[in-house]
Amino acid sequence: xxxxxxxxxxxxxxxxxxxxxxxxxxxxxxxxxxxxxxxxxxxxxxxxxxxxxxxxxxxxxxxxxxxxxxxxxxxxxxxxxxxxxxxxxxxxxxxxxxxxxxxxxxxxxxxxxxxxxxxxxxxxxxxxxxxxxxxxxxxxxxxxxxxxxxxxxxxxxxxxxxxxxxxxxxxxxxxxxxxxxxxxxxxxxxxxxxxxxxxxxxxxxxxxx
Length: 209
Ligand SMILES: [Zn+2]
Description:
Blueprint: E1 26-31, H1 48-65, E2 69-72, H2 82-86, E3 95-103, E4 114-119, H3 128-147, E5 152-157, H4 160-164, E6 169-176, H5 180-187, H6 189-207
Helix pairs in contact: 1-6, 3-6, 5-6
The structure holds zinc ion.
């Protein structure tokens, strides 16, 4: 993957916390699925729940090693409800929850796109400030990942976790297990590590105002 050429701003002091200039300084990494819920299962038995755990741990370690605050909804193979996952967001300021999943692209699709999703506000249960902050963070994340040559789609949808979360939530669906490029990106260790580093760098860049 190409070098990250997005400069990280660390010296500017943030005094306001309105939607468009928020700085996130804590990252809650959520490994999707777990326990009795395997998520997507590949033809050779590889499970989404194991890959999301590996991605969450890798991204979290990369953030911690750069002096950022990273928290994990799960660090082992166990089932969790949406509200259990959102529990770490309670009373937390300037944090964002990044929920990691694997997509469902099929063989006919070229490449291994990354899909970013945030709440569309249609249930009326999500404070608009979170929807706006999620959108801004998600769009920045998409821009940085595109600079790193990943194919990125963005969508809005009702997100169950956002309804109980006290921070913005962005869902990151990485690649897929059902086509060659997706498997390559996720199951080849070198490629997966490159993806992990790219996601960590993109998350840090998107977190700056
Ligand atoms: Zn999933």
